[in-house]
Input
Amino acid sequence: MIKVILQTLSIVAIPLIIAAFVAYAAKKKVPVYESFVAGAKGGFEVAIKIIPYLVAMLVAIGIFRASGAMEILVKLLAPIANLIGMPPQVVPMALLRPLTGSGSLGLMADTMKRYGPDSFIGILVSTMYGSSETTFYVLAVYFGAVNIYRTRHAVAAGLIADAVGMLGALLICRLLFG
Output
């Protein structure tokens, strides 16, 4: 029953949110299209500003993965993952997702290719991907673009949110998919 309710909600959630925004804007007499175009223009300007930070972050992640540090970390964390009921095959996602969106997307695709999208591991990895954020990417790129350099509390808050997202994904997937 819970699975059917969640599937129905997931189908209608985004269209309802978009419709609510458009209806609210119309009620307030906000020019929706013009506001959208202005926002898109601002987004393009931000994209230009963040390119140097993006390149730096992607290079750092490439070095981390190429050095073999990821494999060492996965081996060290496998006993803890087993203790909480997390398959060791998904530990790389839990480690990589706070660092990079494209890297974790590639890892998710590789995991699904290896284990199948309908396997528990495939479902868990995709749920983890959607339940967490690229914390260090956000800090490096977006905070850097607006000249915010003191990110101590933002790092802690982001990593706690990522951990809760990963554990929540594990819990929900265990409840719904066994």
The first helix runs from residue 2 to 27. The radius of gyration is 19 Å.
